[in-house]
Hints:
Strand content of chain B: over 45%
Mean pLDDT of chain A: 93
Number of helices of chain A: 0
Radius of gyration of chain B: 14 Å
Distance between the termini of chain B: 41 Å
Helix content of chain A: under 10%
Order of helices and strands of chain A: EEEEEEEEEEE
Structural class of chain B: mainly beta
Largest sheet of chain A: 7 strands, mixed
Number of strands of chain A: 11
Number of strands of chain B: 12
Low-confidence stretches of chain B: none
Largest sheet of chain B: 6 strands, mixed
Distance between the termini of chain A: 37 Å
Order of helices and strands of chain B: EEEEEEEEEEEE
Oligomer: heterodimer
Helix content of chain B: under 10%
Radius of gyration of chain A: 13 Å
Low-confidence stretches of chain A: none
Strand content of chain A: over 45%
Structural class of chain A: mainly beta
Mean pLDDT of chain B: 91
Largest interface: A-B, 27 and 23 residues
Number of helices of chain B: 0
Amino acid sequence: EPEVTQTPSHQVTQMGQEVILRCVPISNHLYFYWYRQILGQKVEFLVSFYNNEISEKSEIFDDQFSVERPDGSNFTLKIRSTKLEDSAMYFCASSVEGKHEQYFGPGTRLTVT
Amino acid sequence: AQSVAQPEDQVNVAEGNPLTVKCTYSVSGNPYLFWYVQYPNRGLQFLLKYITGDNLVKGSYGFEAEFNKSQTSFHLKKPSALVSDSALYFCAVRDINNYGQNFVFGPGTRLSVLP
C-alpha cells in the first residue's frame, strides 16, 4: 500500500542553523501539507500546497519557513534559522483532493539545541 | 473559525467493553469530520471520515463514529475494546465552505484499554 515517507526520522541542529525536512507524498496525490506537534501537545497546521503554490498557511508559518516541490516526487519544508521553540515532530501529509482524508508520514523529530 | 474539542484527556476501559471517545466541533458551514489514531513514535493513521450520507460511518479496526448535527458531535465508538487499541486519538474537522484545505485537530484523547 502506498505511503507517505519522511526523512530524516530525527534531526538535531543548533539554534540559528537552517534545516530541510523532506517528504515524498503518495504519488497520485495533488495536495500536500505540513503539520507540527510539539511534544505532548496537539497537531498544528502549518501550510498546504497545491498546484505548485501555497494555498493556505497558518500564523505559525512565518518568514522563517518555506516549502518547495523541487521535482515530481519530493516536498520539502525549510526552516531558515531555527529557534529552540521549533523543536517538535513535523508531519508531512498528502491527499487526493482537498476534502478527502489526508495520509500522514511517520514524522521527523526536530531537536534544536 | 473552526474548532474541535475532545473533552476527555484520558479514557480508560476494560478489554472487551465498549468504548467511546468524544468529539464536538464548531464550524461556520458544513463539516468534514475525521478520526485519526497515533501510536507511540508513529505518525497519524486515518481511521474514518464523515463527508455526507449516513450519519453512522464505519472505519478501520472495527471503529465507527456517529455524526450528530444537532449536537455538533462526532463520537468514536467500538463495541469491544482490545488492548491493542490503546493509543492517542485525534478528531479533526474541515469546514467545506472554507477555501483552505487544512484540518483543525482536537487536543487528543489517550485511550487505555486494560487487560
